[in-house]
Each structure stands twice: as structure tokens, then as C-alpha cells.
Amino acid sequence: MQNPKTLISEDEIRKRVDELAAQISLDYADKGELVLVGVLKGSFIFLADLSRRLSIPRHIEFIAVSSYRYGSTRSGAVRLVMDMRRSIEAKNVLIVEDIVDTGHTLDYLIKMLKSRNPASIRTCTLLHKEHSAEVDVQIDYCGFSIGDEWVVGYGLDYDEKDRTLPYIGVIEPDD
Ligand code: PRP
User: Which of 34, 43, 107, 140 is the most interior residue, by most CB within 10 Å?
Assistant: First the structure.
């Protein structure tokens, strides 16, 4: 089977993650510990790389959500399937996503986590499908804006395949 066509190379990812980490480190300098909340599963590789390049104190948490969908179409309904272990009350929180597509997942997470009274909430996504937005959602740090294509690799999958590709590739889904 052929590998997916490269959309964003390993090198481009590395450079952009460096830039994001530098910006985040600057913005949160002297603000105490930052809680990075990785949204499973897709964010695990981005979170691992980003978190290791920060020069500020940080703490890692994970959260998992599930979106209801029909084939490759999402309904917009999101539910929490795994919560984080520690309280985020009075903490600075950065939600880390691999991709924002319709925006429903991030919108749900921001609202839910805000209700837990953190000191602040910001969001960081590696990829943003700007033209697929169904809700207007706050994105504070964005790696790359992409078109409406199905992307895999660097944590993103198609039917659980290709998550561990080292680059972002494009595929044609079957449905
Ligand atoms: C992806 C991604 C986001 C969500 C974004 O997760 O990791 O959480 O979709 O889509 P939205 O903006 O349309 O809500 P997915 O449901 O594919 O699960 P996974 O991360 O476990 O692969």
C-alpha cells in the first residue's frame, strides 16, 4: 500500500512546533505552572513534542471525548469519555488539540473546563480547517491552516490507521 501524500513534512512540523513552544513559553513566563490538557487520542504526539520544548513549568493532563458521526460526517454532539485526574481550579490551562474541524469538540471543552474556574483557558491546535467551521471557537495558538482534506499522521488517524506516520499526509476516505 502506498503512503499518503505529504501535506506537511516532518521538518515543517518540527519548525512550527518550535515556534509555538517559544511563543507559549514567552506568553506564560512568570505565570506559574501551565496545565496542558491533551485531547485524546489525536493530540498525543503533538502534545509530547510541544510539551518537551516549553521552557516554563508545566503539568500534563489528558481528556477524552467522543463525537457522534455518520461515516465522515459529524453530528456536532460531543460527550466526555475520560476526565483528567487533577483539579484545574485557579490554574492556567492550555487545551492541546491535533485538529479543529467543525469546532464542536473545542467549543464543548472550553465551556466545560471554564465551569471549573481555572485562572485562564487558552487553546492550541496543530491544524485548523478554517472553512469547515460550524461554530466560532477561540483558537489562541495554531500550527497550520489547512483545506477541507482528510489528513492523517502525527497523531491523526483514518479508522485508527496512519496515526504514527511522522508527517501529515492526505488520503481519500472510502465513504
Ligand atoms: C478529532 C480531533 C478533535 C476533533 C475535532 O478527534 O482530535 O478532537 O476531531 O473535530 P471537530 O472540530 O469537528 O469537533 P476524533 O473524533 O477524530 O478522535 P481521535 O482524536 O480519538 O482520533
Answer: 43
Ligand 1 centroid to Cα of residue 30, in Å, is 32
Q: Tell if the pTM clears 0.85, that is, is over it.
A: yes
Domains observed in the chain: 5-171 (3.40.50.2020)
Q: Note whether 109 and 65 are within 8 A (CB).
A: yes
Q: Which among 34, 31, 86, 92 is positioned nearest to 63, based on CA atoms?
A: 86
Closest by CA position to 29, among listed 21, 39, 41: 21
Distance, CA 169 to ligand 1 centroid (Å)? 16
pLDDT tens figures, 77-121: 899 999 999 999 999 999 999 999 999 999 999 999 999 999 999
Contacts with 171 (C-beta within 8 Å, 6 or more apart), sequence order: 4, 5, 150, 151, 152, 158, 162
- Among 46, 81, 96, 105, the mutation site with the greatest number of ligand 1 atoms within 8 A of its Cβ is 105
Residue pair 121/133 in contact (Cβ under 8 Å)? The answer is no
Residue ID of nearest Cα to ligand 1 atom 21: 41
Identify the pLDDT of residue 151.
97
